[in-house]
Fold:
Amino acid sequence: MLSLNVNEATWKDDCVTTCGWEVVRFNETYPEEADGTAYPPTCSVSGLPAGALIVDDVPAGTPVVRPGCTNSWTNSGSFSFSSSNNGSEAVYPSKVDLHQLGAGFGGHFYFGHTRQDDAKGQRLKITGTWQLNQKVNGTAMVYVHLPDHGAQTKYATYQIETARWTAQRTIAQPGSGNRWVPLGAFRFSDVPRVRLTTTASDGTGDEDLAFDAIAVAPGDYKVNSSEISLPPANPNSPDIDHSDQPHEPTKETLAGVSARAGGTGVGACQVLNKKAGTSLCLSSQTAFRKPTREQLSKVRPLAKRAGELHLVKWCSEVSGNHYSRLEACLHRTVTGTVFRNEKPIGQAELFVRTEIGVKDGGKLVREVSTIFPTRIDKEIGSIALTWDPDCVGACKSDPPLVTGQMAWGTDGTGWPIAQAQVTHEWTGATLDKINLQWFMKVTSPSADNEPTALWGIPEFELRCDAQVGNSPGCVFWKVVPTYTVDTPKYPTASAMYWLAQTRLKSHPGSRTNPLHRLEDRNAQEGNRRRMCRNASAKFDPHPDTPPEVQSRTLIAAALVIATGATASACTSDSSPAGTSKDVARASARPSPDPSPPGSASSPAPSSTPRAPSTDSAPVQQDTGQETPSEPTTGSSQADAPAAAKNDVTVRQLIPKPDGHALWVPVSIHNRGRESASYTAVIRITGPNGFASTVKVTTGPLPPGRTASQSQTAQSPSGTAVPSNPKAEIVDVVRTPA
Structure:
């Protein structure tokens, strides 16, 4: 038996401070509070233009889970999802990452998480598609609704099926409150469809991507950069004179006099020999001095029967050295100083102007030099000049034909103008570079010697070839020319060049990224196949285009690498009807040095305003513009990359015209979340021992951006380029910036 002793209970006397006390927040008479409102939905069509057609993410008639929110709009289409897997599994793991919230437009939206476009991202990719329930024939503005939460990605890429192509718009989803965001105006000819996937360049599976409603508002909108009104072609339009190129100053406006047989270098004239007697030396001023009016008043023009000859009409309007594609102008002040007992006693100055012109863009180069004194001191008495221009390389020069006399004194009768004409001729057959030089000898009865000088202008180097249309010709190849497309005669071609030049990131054909002519026929056909995206496509020129024009390719390989575009038209059994066949007329002048795609020493079409060579931002919002998307990869063998590894892709290898080297076009796309620099090592191999290694490096590349460049692969052993070279990306190093 258990016995318990229980003391009598007593009340605590300090309970005010030591006991617990009940707090009743809502007593029995307190009324029940209303439900809270977190993330209130949008329940109206506010923010949309009148007549906008809404496609919600839930079917019409779906009950709204949020109280007080009713469907006051008509659902004018359908929304559907498609899920992905790895292609071999029977389940779709991407479905587990699809969620929904009772907010946004109409009190409901879906969301997933962004991932990169790699194997894992493709396996977990979700694609949402909005489709209108009616056709739209004309332009319409497309809007997307973004909720006030559950929308975190800055790289939501919407695809809009338009009448011409699938356009893309990348926008940032985060923002303030529920809102409608315009993707832009587009032209439609069928049922509009809009797609959005969970793929993003910086995706890691952490950021939300929202699928809410869209709206299509038909109307009379201007579709920027795609609404091109082309006038009818005018076959009778006058031909453009492509030889009329703007001139520009040389970087080095005055080349030096090189000493020979008693001459001196640039600068102040020095004593020629340390002994008693008189001597004459020559120098060229560091800057050309234009003759003053007083000096010109002492000059006597050529006799009327001879007349003064001018080859370059703009030569008298400039100072220093200027040149264009087919013309050049040289100005020089040559000073002769007479020394007696090592002290200068007098000077003579000669004005020299040389005008150079390539005759009819061919292989004959004519020049005429105008020479006269602007100063002869009485201590000198008189001077006589021997002038002998020449050319160096595969060329020959005729003896100079002198008009007037090249001797001047101080008799007060005036100094006559003298002119010397010379014709140089390229004597090569394929490709050569030739240089012009000028030899001068000056004599004076006041001097005991006969100094001579020889000079040339490095930038006046001529390139002569017969590689374009078998038409031989010479040009000043260091001048980057401007090719003007004949818009009245070829409006379609002009519009195509304009669109490529202004809308592509590289702005091909601009001063910062000039084009080069591609002469290799195999490379041309490969580029055309890339453009047509069909291995059976063939070049189909317009029947009115002359054969010599058909043989020229004006769009650079840089443009081909970026988009597969060329200046040619192509057709195949599967190509769409209405493919443009307009081909722009090309200049008959020879091309500059063969150079890699996108090099800076090449001709550039410029029939249109040039866009600035800056990349557009990766996030675009409210652009209101329609742009073609990057072409998708088809089944053509020409489309397949030569090699790919991580973020690096090697495009189709392009043989150089000499047959001993390859252009290796490489593109690097930063798929990470932060900027990074890249280094890639690529190995090119082939039969007969062909082997070459190239290295590609980039600076900091922002997320989602692509850098493209070309390298040259050449076997050290001199092995010819194989017909089927192989590319292997040996190493890729990615360094976060």
Observations:
- Residues 289 and 505 are 45 Å apart (CA to CA).
